Amino acid sequence: MSQEIDATRIPELQQVVGQALELARAAGASAADADASMQKGLSVTVRMGEVETIEYHRDRGMAVTVYFGQSKGSASTADLRAEAVQQTVAKACAIARYTASDACAGLAEPEDMAREFPDLDVDHPWNIEPEQAVELARACEAAGLAVDARIANSEGASLATHRGVRVFGNTHGFLAGFPSTSHSLSCALLAQSGSDMQRDHWYALARSATDLQPAAAIGRRAAERALARLGARRLSTRRASVLFSPEMARGLYAHFIGAIRGASQYRRASFLLDAAGQQIFPSFLQMQERPHLRRGLASSNFDSEGVATRDRELVSGGVLDGYVLGSYSARKLALRTTGNAGGIHNLIVSAPAASADFAGLLARMGSGLYVTELLGQGVNGVTGDYSRGASGFWIENGAIAFPVHEITIAGNLREMLRNIVALGTDVDIQGAIRCGSVVVEGMTIAGE
Description:
448 residues; alpha+beta; PmbA/TldD fold; 2 domains; six-stranded antiparallel sheet; five-stranded mixed beta barrel; 9 helices
């Protein structure tokens, strides 16, 4: 039998899942689902040209959930042998027999199961040897260190590659799986001038290694970002526009997604309670979910319950169309699953009528704060209160004036989302949320 982690392992995993489902039925379960996976990966870290870590992992596992009526039990194992699967199903059944009935518990509806499985081009193995990975990480770091004599130290360069195969099935007759990959390369460097020392980093993440930025380019970008932060100052407390870089903007939208998840809604723990149909963003902003993008980092034909994923207009004209739901939260809200059990699938944020390149955003701002790093976890998902440490650059007369640090930016997320005035064309696709820079007016900047 093949020892590779690739599509040839799907029949083996299907057999494991099928066995688990048969055992659950035989034990009296009215319904069940199971998820089996295999994965392997390599990661290396180099610092100042020396190898710090080389890690190789190879994992496998199976999780099963059984329902006796509407009482639920779950168990998992890292052993895929038949006897281990049998023991795991028995444990899940034992748990279910002692669990209280929940009217909303159960599999997703049969009619919602995925039935079409187009190739999403998410499997691109990188057959790189540890020695090659080390040399690539070294080249990345060396390129950064060579940029300027003020790049005095390094936190290292890291390369990681991962490949996995997953199969999911349930007693509705759904049984499907696919292999996928992800690869990354990153570098973090320190710049020093006198007693002033600043750190920054850069990275690349993709399904295929051929889509990663060149190692030298990543190292140089990390160095340039660290050098740009030398001479950072504090600001006096004020109110101003804030420009979030694409990486920071992604976090802003993630808070929005968290607020419209089904769990936040039915628990009544969201700053956007009952917000479906309301104007949340300015009218020029759109959000589309596109689960079937080829090579997308969050692409999938089905969610973690087997429900078919579909293109969706989540926000149109600034108005929220609906929530992000799995089957359980959908039942709690008397709604229908949106195929988002397990998360969002390639959310694209756009504003055709209010977009500009980076220079255009700076010109539109005039003066304000450009945020390239956020610190701390000062975000309250219930009230929307937002307060986080930040660093970046002060903008004056439409241009970067000087770097800033040791400040806090604050506001309320509901107001911040309404106060978006422009989006950047510098879209970052390295995540489940694809977005460019975003300008938010009227935030409080706390400094000296």
